[in-house]
Amino acid sequence: MAMDRHTRVVGWLKVTLPLMALAILATLFLLADRIDPEAALPYAEVDVEDLAREPRMTAPTYAGTTSDGGALTLSADEARPSAEGAPARAQTLRLQLDTPDGAATNLTAAEAVLDNVAREIVLSGGVVITTSTGYRVETAEMTAKLDRSGLQSQTPVTATGPAGDLSAGGMTLGQDNRTPGGYLLVFNGGVRLVYLPGG
């Protein structure tokens, strides 16, 4: 008698459990969010022909050491390698130069052109320089050496610093020949300083 009851329960479960599983699955499908086929896969808007014509790198970074022991780091939003005689170019460039004397100089620029022959990079498009000694300099164009610690601008510069506000025809940052291991920031070409006492 107990065996008959056990057999009936097992037979009933064999039918009921699969039906319950189907009911649960059906409920899940009915309650699930509808998929919009149009918005299922986002595609990047990339011009493949333009990429093939002008290859580029996104967010490249370069780090190296100059001959005098400075640490140079370059990063950009986008860079295009040199091709067919055209120089390598970068957009939204950031440059950091840490000299052996412990000073740090940071530059940002909208554009940059790399000159491999001269071992330098020319930054343009609103160059902003900040130094750990408290100077902030703005100029239209700046040249940074890649093989040694050196910056030069031959375009007018405006600056704010510990002594006050100044303007000049250009500026250089490089090794101080009179002080081994020292570096000088020099403004030249008609320097005009507005001295701020206590600045």
UniProtKB/TrEMBL annotation:
Which Gene3D superfamilies does the UniProt entry name for this protein? Answer: Lipopolysaccharide (LPS) transport protein A like domain
The reply on keyword tRNA-binding is no
Q: Does the keyword Iron-sulfur apply?
A: no
InterPro entries per the record?
LipoPS_assembly_LptC-rel, LptC
Keywords (alphabetical) are: Membrane, Transmembrane, Transmembrane helix
Cellular-component GO terms for this entry = plasma membrane
Q: Where is this region: Disordered?
A: 146-173
* GO MF, one annotated term: lipopolysaccharide transmembrane transporter activity
Membrane-crossing ranges are 12-32
Know the name of this protein? Answer: LPS export ABC transporter periplasmic protein LptC
The encoding gene: lptC
